[in-house]
């Protein structure tokens, strides 16, 4: 269903996994999409897929933890499509070799902490900072930030990642509170276990099998499940939903282990 005809979206981290699935779902809904990724070649591959399916998209490269890159991504979108209606902040630092260094507080290297916060939190703030004025000029829009179940309950490792994602939750509420009357909605998606390539690379099969037993659904989440939620939150069908943290985890968070 073409729910997003005439709308323009930015998807960060759009070169693969949840981001690529979301780009394709938004384009299928009728939106024009700026695919932003630190690996511009991967973004270009997704753009090619969108074009082959009859959609309209552009690829934009850049490290969004750098403000100039975030500003340039928004400007490139406006230059090409004339407006910004949807921002999906999906970019995150999830490389297995990096996450293996994100351990406990006593063992934390400051450079790991700072880089995690820069990519997982600062990039979302910077994209909001530069997208909000563009949205206000054309009557508002929908911001969909990406958090993590790790921000809602503790584990023995990944403390920097979890703290950064907890910051995203609060950022979303403040954006919603500050700009709601200007027509801007902001919500956070809080995914649980989603079988992306990064997850498969980071977790052994036996760990994935154990985690899948914790879902209340007979299946584990796929990137397309998150993409469908983004499309809903981007559309006018969710016009009265803002400032919310929305879990998508197959019920893992409601069951006592």
Structure explained in plain terms:
With 257 residues, the chain is an alpha/beta fold. It has a single domain, classed as Rossmann fold. It has 9 helices and 7 strands; from the N terminus they run E-H-E-H-E-H-E-H-H-E-H-E-H-H-H-E. It has a 7-stranded parallel beta sheet with strand order 3-2-1-4-5-6-7, with helices on both faces. Helix 2 links the parallel strand 2 and strand 3. Helix 1 packs across helix 9 and helix 5 runs parallel beside helix 6.
Note the main sheet.
7 strands, parallel
What is the radius of gyration?
17 Å
What is the tally of helical segments?
Answer: 9
Into how many domains do the coordinates divide?
1
H/E element sequence:
EHEHEHEHHEHEHHHE
Helix content: 40-55%
Q: SS-based structural class?
A: alpha/beta
CATH homology superfamily name: NAD(P)-binding Rossmann-like Domain
Output the CATH topology.
Rossmann fold
Choose one word for the global shape. Answer: globular
Report the count of strand segments. 7
Q: What's the N-to-C terminus distance?
A: 39 Å
Write the CATH architecture name: 3-Layer(aba) Sandwich
Binned strand content: 5-15%
CATH class reads: Alpha Beta
Mean pLDDT: 95
Unreliable stretches covering 5 or more consecutive residues: none
């Amino acid at each position: 269903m073409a729910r997003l005809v005439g709308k323009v979206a930015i998807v960060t981290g759009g070169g693969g996994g949840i981001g690529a699935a979301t780009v394709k779902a938004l384009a299928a809904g009728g939106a024009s999409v700026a695919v932003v990724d630190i690996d511009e070649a991967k973004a270009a591959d997704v753009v090619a897929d969108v074009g082959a399916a009859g959609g309209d998209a552009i690829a934009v490269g850049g490290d969004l933890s750098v403000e100039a890159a975030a500003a340039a991504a928004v400007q490139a979108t406006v230059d090409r499509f004339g407006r910004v209606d949807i921002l999906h902040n999906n970019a995150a630092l999830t490389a297995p070799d990096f996450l293996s260094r994100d351990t406990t507080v006593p063992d934390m290297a400051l450079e790991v902490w700072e880089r995690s916060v820069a990519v997982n939190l600062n990039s979302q703030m910077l994209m909001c900072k530069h997208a909000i004025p563009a949205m206000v000029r054309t009557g508002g829009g929908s911001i969909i930030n990406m958090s993590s179940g790790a921000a809602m309950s503790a584990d023995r490792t990944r403390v920097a990642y979890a703290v950064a994602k907890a910051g995203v939750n609060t950022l979303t509420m403040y954006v919603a509170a500050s700009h709601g009357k200007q027509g801007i909605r902001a919500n956070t998606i809080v995914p649980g276990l989603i079988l992306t390539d990064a997850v498969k690379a980071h977790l052994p099969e036996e760990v994935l099998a154990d985690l899948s037993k914790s879902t209340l659904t007979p299946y584990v989440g796929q990137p397309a499940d998150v993409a469908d939620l983004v499309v809903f939150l981007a559309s006018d069908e969710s016009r009265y939903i803002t400032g919310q943290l929305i879990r998508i985890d197959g019920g893992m968070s409601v069951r006592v282990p």
